[in-house]
Design a protein that fits this description.
The protein is mainly alpha-helical and 209 residues long. Helix content is 44%, strand content 8%.
Length: 209
């Protein structure tokens, strides 16, 4: 005959089970995964931070200048995109690349606000990059996360002339730098070639020194 447990005993068993699983799955397991991650992938586990010496940092400060996984805008003193730097794709995350507000615009393809935004971005892009005839899609639309750190190769090459002029650099050197910083398709066939904007800007500033 089965023994019927009293409710205090049943409660105590439940509490002990909760504590054991909380410790195992809420403390020990995450700590183990974090430890393995830090050992096997130290850069990724620490946010994929990119560092640059003072002479090669976009903000002229030594040490971490951003994450290779999160885009950032580089504006001049007036708050406008700095022509001396490569600029990322538009962002709908907060005021732009806000990690606490990751999001796309969620506007449909025929939404008037989206069409208006695309028209404004196209006009600005053509004005900032004279000689461009076809504006890359990633210069007109935001990414789903709003944090995309990469731009297309076409986008980077369109900006090369503007950046070279602003920095009094030889255009061929800037174009070569873009190609040097280009990452190919994942596994050789997934996605499209791309350029990490922050890495490119760090290399760009270093090119002058």
């Amino acid at each position: 005959m089965a023994t019927i447990r009293s409710w205090p005993r049943t409660l105590w068993v439940s509490v002990r089970t909760l504590l054991i699983f909380t410790l195992a799955l809420g403390v020990l397991y995450p700590a183990a995964i974090l430890g393995v991650g830090r050992l096997a992938f130290p850069a990724q586990a620490n946010g994929s931070l990119l560092e640059a010496p003072a002479h090669a940092a976009p903000n002229s400060a030594a040490g971490p200048v951003g994450s290779g996984l999160i885009g950032q805008t580089l504006n001049d003193a007036s708050g406008n995109p700095d022509p001396a730097f490569f600029q990322p794709r538009p962002s709908a995350a907060g005021d732009g690349y806000d990690g606490t507000a990751s999001s796309g615009s969620n506007l449909g393809p025929e939404n008037p606000k989206l069409l208006e935004a695309i028209a404004e971005r196209k006009a600005a892009y053509l004005a900032e990059n004279p000689g461009t005839t076809v504006v890359p899609a990633d210069a007109l639309t935001t990414s789903a996360s709003g944090l995309d750190p990469d731009i297309s190769v076409a986008n980077a090459l369109d900006q090369a002339a503007r950046v070279a002029k602003a920095r009094s650099l030889d255009l061929a050197k800037v174009v070569a730098l873009v190609k040097e910083q280009t990452t190919g398709r994942d596994l050789g066939f997934l996605g499209e070639p791309r350029v990490n904007v922050l890495k490119l800007n760090i290399a760009l500033v270093g090119l002058e020194n």
